[in-house]
Hints:
Layout lengths: L1 H5 L1 H16 L3 H8 L3 H9 L6 H11 L3 H13 L1 H9 L14 H12 L2 E3 L12 E3 H4 L4 E4 L18 E4 H5 L4 E5 L6 H13 L14 E6 H4 L11 H4 L12 H7 L3 E6 L6 H17 L4 E6 L15 E5 L4 H18 L3 H20 L1 H6 L3 H13 L8 H19 L12 H17 L5 E2 H11 L4 H4 L4 H11 L3 E2 L5 E4 L2 H14 L3 H7 L6 H10 L2 H17 L4 H12 L7 H13 L6 H8 L17 H14 L1 H13 L9 H4 L6 H15 L3 E4 L2 H6 L8 E4 L5 H6 L8 E4 L19 E5 L17 E5 L18 E5 L18 E4 L18 E4 L5 H8 L6 E4 L15 E4 L10 H4 L5 E5 L7 E3 L10 E5 L3 E3 L9 E4 L8
Parallel strand pairs: 5-8, 5-9, 6-7, 7-8, 13-14, 14-15, 15-16, 16-17, 17-18, 18-19, 19-20, 20-21, 21-22, 22-23, 23-25, 24-26, 25-27
Antiparallel strand pairs: 1-2, 3-4, 3-9, 10-12, 11-12
Helix pairs in contact: 2-6, 5-6, 8-11, 16-17, 16-19, 19-20, 21-25, 22-24, 25-27, 26-28, 27-28, 27-29, 28-29, 28-30, 29-30, 31-32, 32-33, 33-35
Amino acid sequence: MAEAHEDPLAELALRLRTLRARRGLQMGGLQQRTGLGRTTVSKALSGHKLPSEATVVALAKALGTDAEPLLALRHAAARTPQAREDSLTRVVRMPRRLTAQPTFEERYLSYMAERHSQLTVVGLDLSRPERAHWPLDAAYLSLELAEQPTAWPAGSEEADDRPSVVVKRAEHALADCRRVLLRGLAGSGKTTLLQWLAVATARDELPEELGNWRGQIPFVLPLRTLVRRGPLPEPHDFLSAVGAPLAASQPEGWADDVLARGKALVLVDGIDEVPQEQRSATRDWLERLLAAYTDAHFVVTTRPSAVPEGWLASSHFTELSVRPMSAADIGVFVDRWHTAARKSATTDAERSQLRDLEAALRMTVRAQRDLAQLSSTPLMCALICALHRDRRGHLPHSRMELYAAALSMLLVRRDLERNIDVPEGIQLTEHQSVQLLQRLAYWLIRNRQTEMDRATALALVSDALPAMQAVAEQGTADQVLTHLVGRSGLLRQPTMDTVDFVHRTFQDYLGAKAVIEAHDFPLLVNNAHDDQWEDVVRMAVAHARPVESADLLRHLVARGDAEAKCRSRLHLLAAASLQYATEIEPDARSLVEQRARVLMPPRSQEEAKELAALGPGILDLLPGPQGLEGDEVGPVIETATAIGGDQAYAFLRRFVQSLPPDSAPFALSRGWENFEAAQYAQEILLPCRDRNPLSLDVHTRDQWNALRFLKPITDIAFREAFTEGEIVEHLSPEHTQTLRIYSGQLLKSLKFVREFPALKELTLSDCTQLAQLEDLAGLSLPHLGLIDVPSEFSFDALNSLPGLTELALYTRLPWESLAELPAPEGLTSLALGGWIGTRLAGVSRWQKLQDLTIGSSPDRKEWQEIATLPHLTELCISDYDLNRAGPVRSVTYLRLLPDSNPQLDLVPDVFPNLERFFINGQGAQPDTIDITPLSRIEGLQISVSYSSEVTGLERFTADAVDLYPRPRTTST
């Protein structure tokens, strides 16, 4: 031990390992408790790298020990020469040579790691702007991303049986993707995720889950900057387009070579910040890059409403959505924010006060559901932390009050209360600052920009000064603009010659205020269809006087009435804006609600999401359950559960009490994470379970604890990582028939499965510690699903499952063809994901197959082999070329999930005996589906999901074609 004390870094690592051993925690469990990445935890325990202070604090809390002794060791280690050398060199991925100069690539990686290693944090310490930055190591929080499994056709007859959205932590969700379209609301953490990817890639510190992303060269391309500068750049201009100082020394052809070798990670931020009329050109630019550099990694971000579902599906992008922060995530964020704030505190009293405020805020967020909803994005959570500190524990309640209080805090109060008088020789009142900032925000909104040249900002300030004598007397336009950038907390200079707002939310808030003051109501109405204006319109309603709000809403409704193409969007936007109005005329409210009712009830998950975005006010318009059709019950529930809060809870209780006796919609358990788990289980889920078996989704520890109220449980899905013992604890072995484990990182064996004699279906995903299935050998298990298993996983025990008839494999397989897959000959159902990496040759081994789902395109020989399956009646394909196929006569039910031309003209020849046909048009290009060719098949029943337009309907009887979502007749 004496030797260990001579090396404080080694001593720190030893203490952490000892504490972990005493607690009996595995790596996965420690990772879950801390919210840190696996690589960060591993390096802290190994002593190879100096951990950040935030990492040490998080580990201490998870291990149940005092952080101060560990921090003392960390500080001692930081003072040693070796630690200093580590901190200086850690950003360089490749070892420096002692004599030669670093290569351009090494210099570039070092630059990227340094350039993106800091985050600006709202309200962290505005008395010292240089302290208002947070090291990315400490600030990054791995949020949850959601993906809808593409091989499960939404709206089909299987809709009730398909898994709901698969939710994983970011590193797990990205693991098997090469191209990702990431959707997220304002402030949800999209840009921070890109920063983390860039820095972790440059430092070679990506976690194990992203092992196949390692060795990449990151390019960060913020579209807000690129679109302002003209045509989008080609690879050789990537660096110069973002103002990288290394651009001039870039070797000729270097970027092209990096991309061509598949070594590039291209991070394209902000499709929503491109004007609508330029988004098609932006997609063309992306598709050209994708065609030229097929092996490069791409991540593209956007707000949810900016582009339609499947916008890049034809280029094989996986669509992921940033989920709202969970209660646990909010707790971690609050802890990290206050830890960072304590570092900048100057007195023990201030540090003690910050500890008290942190504890109080944790309780407040937990107790007040409306505040928890407001805290669900990193931006809003940081804002609430800052306001809570600034107001000594008192918080505003509504979103608009929150913004107004934030402006007051950021613009004036912090400087006044800390005696920072006349910084830079300029002293502006709050009103003066707002007036100037409004001008800048309004210019950006009118010109559909999120960034402007500094010269433009200077001109706007200069134009304002003649009418603002008190400001003009204090300095020049340049001095005033410099003051706003340096002191307002709202503006920043991303480069020497550009200015933008710290966050788009503040730009929209101030711009909306300017629109109202300028009486530019026609401008609002004429642009309301544009997603870039959605928040501006809502906030304009809040800023306007009652008469103006009513007039604006009436004009939105009138435009929606006149323009069928954007009618739903405009009418829903008007309804969403109601909750922002402090006072609204009854006639105007009635008009808006009447139009919203035409869009009720929702008939799909997508419609439910749109309505939930309108906020609690929409609950008063939701009907049911009396009189609802079968396709409306679930979406109505999904709308209410997505809204959350006391009003939604009361609605659901009334709704459940009136449900038919045999009804227990799956949507009830899918949405319970937005409510207090034990209460929801007893008052909502239990009454439904008593009428009909429930399919339960478990996302959180609180839900897991609440399972004891719901025994016996027959069908359950675990979407959070639990140990074997925890999975078994609340289940009834003799009753459990379906068990789905979508986050299996903590599973070390499958022996626990033998405790469920009634089990008929088992699905396993992300079981990173499992290497084989031997524990299941001999079990009579009819259905097995495997998703994202480790690369070294052994499938040999599949042949030891005598009762296996249904097998689903959504993971890479180690064989050249299916001929090597060791599955029983008696399979009747086989589902294969599009990324299995194995040819379909050999599928004819399973002569009893009745149902086949395939995600990769068969070649001619494979089509011929499929045609030899005598009992194959159901076929689902999501990547195909029917020109390669000959007749497949046994298939009577065909499901197509195309991402390009669906080739329906070939369907009657390839499948001459069809009786039922389903097609999912979501993401298909073009998005109009012509079913005319299917009229050649007599008596065919057709289902079409998510198509913007279906032609050829006149060739069929009314009861021959079902459309999903079911169309509604609109009237005004």
